[in-house]
Fold this protein.
Amino acid sequence: MNTHKLLISGIVQGVGFRPHVYKLALKYNIKGYVLNNSSGVEVVATGNEKSLKNFENELEKNPPEKSKIYSFKIISVYPDKKYSNFKIRKSIKNSYKTTPISPDLNVCDECLEELFNPVSRRFMYPFINCTNCGPRFTIIEDIPYDRPKTTMKKFKMCIKCIDEYENPLNRRFHAQPNGCHQCGPELKLTDNSEKMLFEGNEYSNVQNIFKQISHYLSIGKILCLKGIGGFHLVCDGLNDEAVATLRSRKIREDKPFAVMFPNVEQISEFCYLNNEETELLKNFRHPIVLLKKEKPCHIAYSVAPKNHFLGCMLPYTPIHHLLLHFYQKPLVMTSANISNEPIIYDNYEAYQRLGKIADYYLVHNRKINIRCDDSVIRVFNYKDYPIRRSRGYAPESIELDYEFRSQVLACGAEQKNTFALAKNAKIYLSHHIGDMGNYETLKSFESGIKHFSNIFDVNPEVVGVDYHPDYLSTKFGNQYAEQNELKIINIQHHHAHAVSCMVENKINQPTIALVLDGTGYGLDNTIWGGECLIAEYDKFERIGHLQTIKMPGSTSVIQHPWKMGLSYLYEIFGEECLNLGLPFLENVSQKQMILEMLKKGLNSPVTSSCGRLFDGVAAICGIRNNVNYEGQAAIEFEQFIVQDENQTYPFQISNSDGIIILQWKNVIEYLVKDVLNGEKCSLIALKFHNGLAKGLLDLTIKSRERTNINIVTLSGGVFMNIFLLNKLENLLKNHDFTVFIHNKVPTNDGGISLGQAIIADSTVNK
């Protein structure tokens, strides 16, 4: 008989790992024990050589579906005693914590069967879960992952639930959120004045609650629903009046809403679906998946106005399943928040702040410890292409080939913020925090860092911040470093973008990085955003960029693209630009004032931003003078393209003090002629995108000629433009470049903290 100690790390807690080990031990006649500790799972196994080998092989190669093994170590030991059976022991707490925490998990098939089975004791129990599903990240307060360290600690299990919880052969063995109608959290339905309508988990109450909600939705009412990581605002996705009312109350004019469908079959009635998109929808992470609308698409127009795509998702909590069981129509399911603040996750705050938006509330008394918004993913070239990485993904660590020499806090960017904590060979990338423009988001950011530092036992020695001194994330990082006497590393925005793409593709050598976005503070104190860099982990060189232009009114141009349109015209035509007869300027009252600002250079910083180029061109075409959400003009401009042809506008290459410049002067001239000649916007958009892709190819070829580097990484928010991304990637590959894009973190600012963490560690440990 041999005895082995197995030390297993990864996502191995809260995913049914110990019961799985127990069953395998019985199968192979293994004696010993299994337990959770702060590092993962420890197994001591005694058996004959063949049994041990089979046990260990099956455990490593066929772990529970939702687990993820990072390390599987086998150590031969001499047992301190003989084991007569196999037991699951109580968790122990080490002096250090290294156990990754499972993301929240969608309802498993077995729990769904129980949920709608009239003979099950959990028939229509709104919080049904087991070791294979249910809340994890959003209820955990500390590790090891045990009930007293979760927000379920206030609910005392009944005798039947305790029996399940203590039975190693039951799939609810040590399922920390375990409960039932008698002992679990409770639902209540109220109006927006908190007047109670129905309360309790008894079958009749649950049925009455969802029947009543169905009635409210059918007459156009708006529901505020507490989910797993926060509140959603819900209405009938086929009722345009209800959706328009929600937009009006939420003050969200055009930004698309996500829609939840009862099943994939119903989604296919509204959107085109391929196999990869179908699998992503059904994946246990259950993100919002961006899908192309069918023509005609009978979803309410107000759900995603002037947008060819629809954010679709399937129900992932028991409450969602119950809701769509009783109301089997598409439901708008949008994050409940106020004007760019993070998602609301507290009952009191929901009533206080959303009362003028929602008509009714479906709430419960299970506390959410940390908010977590829905993830948004699209499929590009048969792979995931993240837009927002949050619920279902966070806080799963990103495993690297790179070994950190210091423990690092990376504070991320100002828009679409995420932070990251790093140590050893892991980066713990946070859930989506949001736009750092208000106090509520800053509070969420600070509490998130504190929580992650605790549960992952990271004690930062180095802090990485964006080079822009006025970002809230930068100010926080500077203050945090000063208070804790830590090293601070200021990191150029586009360098962080480049390295984020490099590291997720396991590239640690110089690359040509094309980084296109809206705003990033440059080392020359101008606004960068159309950059060609030679990037390494600890340094970069700006080898080329887009021709620069003035931003009249500074950051106000982001909300008012017509100002950028006028700036491009003035650069080429001078004051005569107002006499060209372009329709987009006809009803603009401030055009003379903006012209004076451009002439005198008042409050008009210089930029190389590709995002601003898209804004200016979209405005000149008459698509949109003002936007209601970030990037709206550029998004609508891309969607004017209806077919792919080879017509193009001519971007040109020039040289300035050794820097390669991608010139747009001729592009604007040709584009203005087309607009004045009444050319269709679809053709103008096509020619611009084709021209930009060809210009970026030329820029990259020139860079290769100088450096002999053949690897290209593409990053930055402009590469959310799938037409441009696809066109450019194909052109680069056809010219023998090796091209890498994102598929683990967003190409937008949501992935920038990943790059910051690597750069901070590389810089301080040169």
Notes: The two ends are 50 Å apart (CA to CA). The mean pLDDT is 94. The chain has 21 helices and 31 strands. The domain at 187-364 is CATH 3.90.870.40 (DHBP synthase).
